[in-house]
Automatic annotation (TrEMBL), chain A:
GO terms for molecular function: Atg8-family ligase activity. This is Ubiquitin-like protein ATG12. GO terms for biological process: autophagosome assembly; autophagosome maturation; autophagy of mitochondrion; glycophagy; piecemeal microautophagy of the nucleus; protein transport. The keyword Membrane applies. Its main location: membrane. Keywords: Autophagy, Isopeptide bond, Membrane, Protein transport, Transport, Ubl conjugation pathway. It comes from Crucibulum laeve. It is a peripheral membrane protein. GO terms for cellular component: Atg12-Atg5-Atg16 complex; autophagosome membrane; phagophore assembly site membrane. The keyword RNA-binding does not apply. It comes from the Eukaryota. Ubiquitin-like protein involved in cytoplasm to vacuole transport (Cvt), autophagy vesicles formation, mitophagy, and nucleophagy. Conjugation with ATG5 through a ubiquitin-like conjugating system involving also ATG7 as an E1-like activating enzyme and ATG10 as an E2-like conjugating enzyme, is essential for its function. The ATG12-ATG5 conjugate functions as an E3-like enzyme which is required for lipidation of ATG8 and ATG8 association to the vesicle membranes. InterPro entries: Atg12 (IPR007242), Ubiquitin-like_domsf (IPR029071). Signal peptide: none annotated.
Automatic annotation (TrEMBL), chain B:
This is Autophagy protein 5. The keyword Membrane applies. One of its GO terms (biological process) is cellular response to nitrogen starvation. It comes from Crucibulum laeve. Conjugated with ATG12. Residues 298-318 have a biased composition (Pro residues). Residues 32-145 form the Autophagy protein ATG5 UblA domain. InterPro entries: Atg5, ATG5_HBR, Atg5_HR, ATG5_UblA, Atg5_UblA_dom_sf, ATG5_UblB. GO terms for cellular component: Atg12-Atg5-Atg16 complex; autophagosome; mitochondria-associated endoplasmic reticulum membrane contact site; phagophore; phagophore assembly site membrane.
Length: 136, 359
């Protein structure tokens, strides 16, 4: 692959990536491999903590009685959209557009945790909602 | 190699300044753009309609890393219509019901770029036991299903329009991470915004970057070559003779838009400043040892000096994992700001896939 050749030449790193060395038999993994697998298990654990999401209506969208909610960090944004629909009492067919900080629509599989880390203001994540596409 | 001028103008700024994208930045962006991966696409044999030409139902293609599965569907459809299906079956093809998964059963997302899908598969393979002799150029085998898409997991429809919306959303999200607002993207005329997606669809580097160079961070040409060791760094000179506006400099972003993919999940997003609090440049290894210390441990300290070993060296850090960016094993000293400007995907995101080393 052209780019990998350029990079390898630029920095003198070996051209074969570590994982293409196939000399290890199926039953022999190194300690390092086991340690890495353990590390992955740790990182896979779902964060049970909750963060504060603040829903803000845009345009003609109805304002809810309650706007601040605690949402589990590990949820995908898709779950937040579904939660909002339920709170609004809207069917799946009714148009609902959601944005972060009046700026962009996140990917539905972005997690609340990642969005909060990157975009929270004043300790909460602002999710704007409207019936029409605004910033999308 | 073409260098071309761009006109940047911001509402609050006086006359537009002409900044040309420098040679090395363009070189790496073109390498990323031209990167392609081999795909082997096979219809699920249980779903092949009667009278299909079996034995020919496998399609090989080189797909651009910066493209998306919905954009490949017209080509795949033409192949299936020409070679595999008979007329009756072809009439019943409903692309909106198509979906892809890997041989291992991983569902493929419409809004992930082909390069990301491929690298993600590479790192998933790195944790499977027993290890297969997996070389970097093994075709990624995809199974195409023609019906019953798991919509609640796919989250999007397979249409090109839906993919475009997701792509534009990612561009804006990346813009916001860099600058705290999306003015650079929203400041583009509608025709220009559409032009970005057209550039992806037509796989045209010049068309795409004619617009993208107005919104992506700039690397001053004094910084674009292999950097000297990190200890020599301080803030790059703001008044250098390439007159890079600070507003768009890669080293002036608040944070580099980065996502880190671990084998079989999760996906992590962290705030990554280009310059650390002590004024040194943030590197890939600093980022990885800070946020994934269990996979990228710090180098252990040198043992105390002894009679037999008066000048002990610190032992090397154990190599448990490796970072892949655009399919390339990335040097640990790479500056994250440079990576964000030169090795990001077309949507502006630097995707780092972490694989496990086979000690």
């Amino acid at each position: 692959m052209l780019s990998s050749t350029v990079m390898a030449q630029a920095v003198g790193s070996p051209e074969a990536p570590p994982h293409s060395i196939a000399s290890i038999s199926a039953t022999e993994h190194s300690e390092a491999f086991d340690e890495a697998l353990k590390a992955l298990e740790t990182y896979k654990k779902k964060d049970p903590s909750k963060v504060i999401v603040r829903f803000k209506a845009v345009g003609n969208a109805p304002i809810m009685k309650q706007n601040f909610y605690k949402i589990t960090s590990s949820n995908r944004f898709q779950a937040v959209i579904q939660f909002l629909r339920k709170e609004l009492g809207w069917q799946a067919s009714e148009p609902l557009f959601t944005y972060i900080n009046l700026s962009f629509s996140p990917a539905p599989d972005d997690t609340v945790s990642n969005l909060f880390k990157s975009f929270a203001t004043d300790g909460h994540l602002i999710v704007n909602y409207s019936t029409t596409a605004a910033w999308g | 190699m073409s260098t071309y001028g761009t006109t940047r103008h911001h509402p609050s700024q006086p006359p537009p300044s002409r900044v040309s994208t420098d040679y090395h930045t363009t070189l790496f962006r073109r390498l990323v753009w031209e990167g392609a991966v081999p795909l082997e696409i096979r219809v699920d044999p249980k779903e092949l309609p009667a009278n299909s030409d079996r034995g020919l139902e496998c399609y090989f293609m080189q797909a651009p890393r910066v493209s998306y599965l919905p954009l490949l569907m017209p080509e795949i459809r033409r192949f299936l219509m020409d070679v595999v299906f008979d007329e009756a079956a072809a009439k019943n093809l409903k692309e909106e019901d198509w979906w892809f998964e890997t041989e291992e059963g991983t569902l493929l997302k419409w809004h992930w770029s082909i390069g990301l899908i491929y690298d993600n598969h590479t790192i998933s393979a790195s944790v499977r036991v027993p290890s297969q002799a997996h070389s970097m150029s093994t075709p990624l085998r995809l199974i195409l299903h023609l019906a019953s898409p798991p919509t609640e997991k796919l989250l999007l429809s397979p249409s090109a329009e839906s993919c475009k919306q997701a792509f534009m959303g990612q561009l804006k999200e990346a813009d916001f991470i860099r600058w705290g607002n999306t003015k650079r993207i929203t400041g583009l005329r509608k025709a220009e915004q559409d032009g970005l997606w057209e550039g992806i669809k037509d796989h045209n580097f010049d068309d795409f970057w004619r617009v993208a160079s107005k919104v992506m961070p700039i690397v001053p040409s004094t910084r674009s070559q292999s950097p000297p060791p990190a200890s020599m760094h301080s803030r790059p000179p703001s008044a250098d003779n390439t007159a890079v506006p600070d507003r768009d400099g890669a080293y002036n972003v608040r944070s580099v838009p980065v996502r880190v993919y671990l084998p079989d999940g999760p996906v992590l997003q962290e705030l990554i400043p280009p310059i650390l609090e002590d004024g040194t440049l943030n590197t890939l290894s600093h980022f990885l040892t800070t946020h994934l210390p269990l996979l990228f441990p710090q180098r252990p300290p040198a043992p105390p000096p002894s009679r037999t070993n008066p000048n002990p060296q610190a032992p090397p850090a154990p190599e448990l994992a490796f970072p892949l960016i655009q399919g390339v094993l990335t040097p640990p000293d790479s500056e994250v700001a440079w990576l964000g400007a030169c090795l990001a995907g077309a949507d502006g995101w630097l995707n780092i896939c972490i694989g496990v080393s086979r000690g």
